[in-house]
Every structure is written in C-alpha cells, then in structure tokens.
C-alpha cells in the first residue's frame, strides 16, 4: 500500500513527523498553519502517550545559557495565553483545555551554587525578566515549614554522612525568586490541545504506527515505511521521536551515508515521586513555590489536590542510567525514588516517607545529548530534520520550538543555506 500526505501539486510541501509528543505536535501545528500538508506518526495510541505525559510540566525561565533563557521567556507567554495560541478550537469543540498555574520559582542559594546563580541573575537582568533576591530571614518567614539547613554536597542515603549539616558553611544564605514561572499539571492534555488545533488546521495524525525505514534517493529523503509495509511519500521527514530519536537517526543513516552530527542522543531513565504535602501545609489556601534545591540535588513543586511532585537534578553522587532502547525501560521504582523522597524529607521534616505499597510517581526517560542542549536543525541529508535531545528540560519551550522548526523547514526547503546563514526570525532574535 502507498499513500501520500497531500495532492501531487503540493508534494513539495509534504511533511512526515515521527513522534506525537509535545515537540512533534507543536511542529505539526506551525507547519500546517504555514500551508505544509503534515502527517504525524506515533507508535503509541495517542498524542503524548509517551515520555511527554510523564513531564513535570514546569514552566520556568532560568537556564545557564542566555539563548535558552530567551527561548523560555518567549515560551512563557504562550503558556500564559494558552487558548490564544491553540485558538480556542478545543474549547469550541467541547474539549478540555490545559491550565497553566502561575507560581514563582525559588532557587536556594549556597556557596557551592553561587556562581551559577549569578549567571542566572545576569541572564534575567539582560532580558529584563523580573526577579527578587531574598535573604535567609525572608525565606524563613515565607516558608516556615522548610528546614534551611545546608546539606551540601548531595549524598546518597547509604552514605554514612547523609543528613549531616555542612557546619563549615552554615545554613543556605537565601534564595533567588523568579515570578515568571508556573506549571502545567496535565502535560498530556496540553499536547492533545496542540494536536486538536493542528487537526483543525488540516494536519493528520496516525497512531499505533511504527516507522521501520526512512526512504531516500541519491539526493534526499523520499518518505518513510511502516512496520506493516505501508509506504508514505514525503519530501520532508522530521525526527521528533523523543527517547526513540537515536533509533530514528540510525534509520536515517542506515545506508552508510556519513553522519556529520557532533552530538548524539540516547534515552536516560528517570524517576519522580508523587507525595502528599507536608503536614500542616495547604497549597490550596496559600501560594506555593517551585523549589530548585541544588543543595540536596532535588526539585519539588505543588500539584493538584494538595499533593506534590519530587524529582532529581542528577547530582554528582547519583549514577546516570542510560538505556540501549527505550522500549526496554523497566517501569518499576528503584532506589532512585527513595533518594528523592529521603532528600525531600531533609528539607521538609514533616513530609513523611510512604511505605513501599503506597509509593507513587512516574518512571520515564529523557532524550539526552552529551551537553544537555537540544538539537533543532536540518541534517546533511536534504529533507531530514531533527527536533531531538530535549534532555528533560524543554517541555516549556515547545510552542517556540514548533515555530522555529517550521521556519527552519520552510526556509531550507525554499533554498536557504541554513549552515551559512543561521539567523532565524520567528518573532524573537534567537541567533
């Protein structure tokens, strides 16, 4: 069987996107709005049924790189005006719309992380992003249920010094507050909103479809072939496969064509814990904070129904668990879940530790590059593009990335030399 994603007269605009996570859906929406006839394929049963659905959904502006801070700042405006971007099609169709909950980020400050904090302050100052600097007295007043002891460096629970204060450096000495933050409690719904908007614009989606081969001629890609033998013709193929991206890259270069990419991607297994909030704390009656705690190597944020999410920041003491194949990811919790929970209890002494039968959370994987920076680019194969290596920190940037990917594809397919002229204007200077 063979079918195309558009009429022959529009074949130069045919696009197949592999992956219906938030990146693939955002790219599809923006390409379709530009007039590209777009088909999104995914091996799962629906949009964001893969790793996107396990995202903590944190929307923040702080990154070490100024360029990524720009991206996140622009992305924040999309989340704050979500229905405007998806053009309210979901609401008009009687479907739920994802909600963005504004909530400040609180970044603990200690001697060890001060250089990093200063980098963030400089980035926010250059871009005029609001911020506040609180001293220890202020944060103790605002969050009295948190223990501000300095435990640096992060340790594993089997370390004999776990839980011992860093007496030499004293307590953490304050916090950086970034008001332009928040979270999306339902990342899957947010992605489905984008999918519905893309479908309303004319994009097509096909689920439970696994790509087995990328077709090429001696000049460029020609389309993809599915496991059942179906061939889909397209002039453009976009790899947005998340933790499966390395397998799609292997397909693209399976004919022996040299891959000139200096970065690779691979899935890295991660766990996060869902817990009740500390005793005596009610986030439904008081403003919460998204806490970035490099002192202990964790982050935590409030969630719906007065619960919270606790995850890790890959501290040096914790081994990174890379997978050869995301399909082999074991969904059972390991000691990683325990480390998150025990570290969180040092910061919040009334939090409590659930017994094994009540352990809740998620197990998923990040699509990681060597430097934790994503790849949004063309390749040396004409027609093959990559939206990969998001490394667990790009969910918030998806609306802007969708626009950037659509612009890159539009310009390159029109003959622009993206390698020689990298500037890409999408409403924000990202060069």
TrEMBL record:
- Asked whether the keyword RNA-binding is assigned, the reply is no
**What's the domain of life for this entry?**
Eukaryota
Instruction: Please give the GO cellular component terms listed in this UniProt entry.
Output: cytoplasm
Name a GO molecular-function annotation.
Answer: oxidoreductase activity
Q: One Pfam family from the UniProt entry?
A: DAO
Q: Locate the FAD dependent oxidoreductase domain: which residues?
A: 14-407
Q: Which UniProt keywords apply?
A: Oxidoreductase
Q: What does this protein do?
A: Required for the assembly of the mitochondrial membrane respiratory chain NADH dehydrogenase (Complex I). Involved in mid-late stages of complex I assembly.
State what protein this is by name.
Answer: FAD-dependent oxidoreductase domain-containing protein 1
Q: What is the organism of origin for this protein?
A: Paramoeba aestuarina
């Amino acid at each position: 069987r063979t079918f195309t994603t558009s009429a022959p007269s529009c074949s130069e605009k045919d696009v197949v996107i592999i992956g219906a996570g938030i990146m693939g859906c955002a790219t599809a929406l923006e390409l379709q709005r530009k007039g590209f006839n777009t088909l999104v394929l995914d091996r799962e049963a629906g949009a964001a049924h893969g790793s996107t659905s396990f995202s903590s959904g944190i929307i923040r502006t702080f990154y070490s790189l100024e360029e990524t801070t720009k991206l996140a700042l622009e992305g924040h405006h999309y989340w704050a005006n979500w229905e405007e971007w998806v053009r309210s099609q979901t609401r008009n169709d009687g479907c739920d719309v994802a909600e963005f909950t504004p909530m400040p980020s609180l970044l603990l400050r200690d001697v060890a992380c001060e250089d990093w904090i200063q980098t963030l302050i400089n980035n926010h100052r250059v871009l005029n992003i609001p911020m506040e600097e609180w001293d220890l007295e202020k944060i103790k007043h605002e969050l009295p249920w948190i223990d501000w002891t300095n435990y640096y460096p992060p340790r594993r629970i089997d370390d004999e010094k776990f839980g011992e204060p860093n007496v030499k450096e004293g307590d953490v000495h304050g916090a950086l507050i970034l008001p332009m933050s928040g979270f999306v409690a339902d990342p899957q719904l947010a992605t489905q909103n984008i999918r519905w908007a893309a479908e309303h614009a004319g994009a097509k989606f096909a689920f439970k479809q696994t790509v087995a081969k990328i077709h090429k001629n001696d000049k460029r890609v020609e389309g993809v072939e599915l496991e059942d033998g179906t061939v889909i013709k397209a002039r453009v193929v976009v790899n947005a496969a998340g933790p499966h991206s390395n397998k799609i890259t292997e397909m693209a270069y399976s004919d022996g064509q040299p891959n000139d990419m200096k970065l690779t991607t691979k899935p890295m297994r991660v766990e996060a814990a869902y817990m009740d909030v500390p005793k005596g704390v009610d986030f439904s009656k008081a403003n919460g904070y998204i806490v970035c705690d490099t002192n202990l190597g964790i982050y935590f944020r409030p969630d719906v129904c007065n619960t919270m999410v606790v995850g890790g920041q890959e501290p040096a003491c914790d081994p990174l668990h890379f997978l050869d194949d995301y399909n082999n990811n074991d969904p059972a919790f390991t000691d990683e879940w325990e480390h998150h929970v025990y570290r969180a209890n040092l910061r919040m002494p009334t939090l409590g530790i659930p017994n094994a039968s009540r352990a809740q959370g998620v197990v998923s994987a990040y699509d990681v590059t060597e430097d934790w920076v994503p790849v949004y680019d063309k390749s040396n194969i004409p027609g093959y593009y990559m939206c990969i290596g998001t490394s667990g920190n790009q969910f918030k940037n998806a609306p802007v990335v969708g626009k950037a990917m659509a612009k890159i594809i539009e310009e390159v397919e029109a003959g622009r030399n993206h390698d020689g002229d990298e500037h890409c204007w999408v409403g924000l200077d990202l060069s």
